[in-house]
Fold:
Amino acid sequence: MQLRRSASSRAIPAAFVVLMAGSAIYLVTVGGRIWPVVILCLAAAIVPSVARRFQVDIDHDGWSVRIGRFERRLPWDEIAAVVIENRQPGRHLVAKLFLVPVAGAGWDVPERMRASVDGRPAVDLFDLEELHYDKDQLIRELSDLTDDRLDVRIHSLAVPMLSPAARARLNAVPDPVVVDYALRPFPEGVDSVRTLRWLNRRRFALLAVWYLVGILPALVLTVVAARAHELLGVAVLASGLAAGIWGYAQLVAVFAPCRYLVEHRTAVDGAELVINVPTNREDLRSGNVTVLAPGTKRGYGKAWLLANPHPVLLLGDPRTGRLRDYDFLRALADGARSSPAEHDQAAAVQLDQLAEQARSAEPPGTGHAAAAGLWVALTATGRAVAWFVVVCSILAAGGSLVDDSPIVGPALVIIGAVMGLIWIFYTLYRLGSLAATVWRSVTRPAA
Structure:
């Protein structure tokens, strides 16, 4: 096996480095001094991620690893385990591969690659997303090479294991997987589309607030500060840029988790909640199952939530608060009730109460999903209009300073030009999605 980084993992940082270098050269030609140095320092910080070596070769004799400053031949008799599991270094889970050495192996591992697996020292070798290699093929070939050392702790990745003994040991999924349930979305039909439209509207409102409260005042302050003194303008621009990026990240984080759950298809299989695929399961006996009331978590509207320990399931519609059907909630309650943990049993009691409330819940909404879907596409396309206003505002602010400020004015123009290029591709994508939605609604046969 020869593992290499995917081209995209290098191309995107490399594009930023080239863009920053070009911006610095342009600013030097117009008389800038401080700003080009700042840009070049930022570019230099990205260069290592582009130039870092990544070469991992695996055969029946062991591993040949060349990653950054870590270069070593690792024979199999020095490797106790090869572990693939999810870690959460930030907001999202990342599938990582760890090598656990045998006691006394004496690997000289750089500090940033040191990790721990089940209390044992390990090497954090790479994220699976970095690889230019099919994940299923990777698992199959590792299974053949590692004998009983491979420990895959992600169900969706453990399925390709070829060894029956290894498959039973790693994930206890029977072969073949017997599915006696149907994965269903919630909300369903037209309610699902209306909920997505509801989320789009609220995200658009937050985008407007972000522009009016954050971006527009920051641009005005930057222009005023740059005309008063160049260094003051640079400081205000840098602060405003950082605040704008942070604010947009917070904006996206408000409704993104809710939209993610709306797009789930789920079922209850005994004491497990199945999400999207039969091998992606949440254990209802984990000791962490919690029922969260509406308003407990920001961005989920009127929905009750099932958490384990983070939200994994919508128990109600975020838009209307309508609960799931009685049978589904009772199945969840039965699964949690089978747990010996008091925490899970308390959640089962709450689920029973919600199930009783669901008996008298309003019926699902009626209407044409195609028409509602068209409105979803329109509200999503509306974000392109909002971004057009943002881009024009930045270009206008930069244009007003080009003659008066050798640094801040050109910097704003460059930022606006880059955002304008991104906006063009984003708008084309949104218009294509809108056209596809219109076409589906026109060609859809009458019910």
Summary: The radius of gyration is 27 Å. Residues 2-51 form one domain. The first helix runs from residue 7 to 29. The first strand starts at residue 2 and ends at 3.
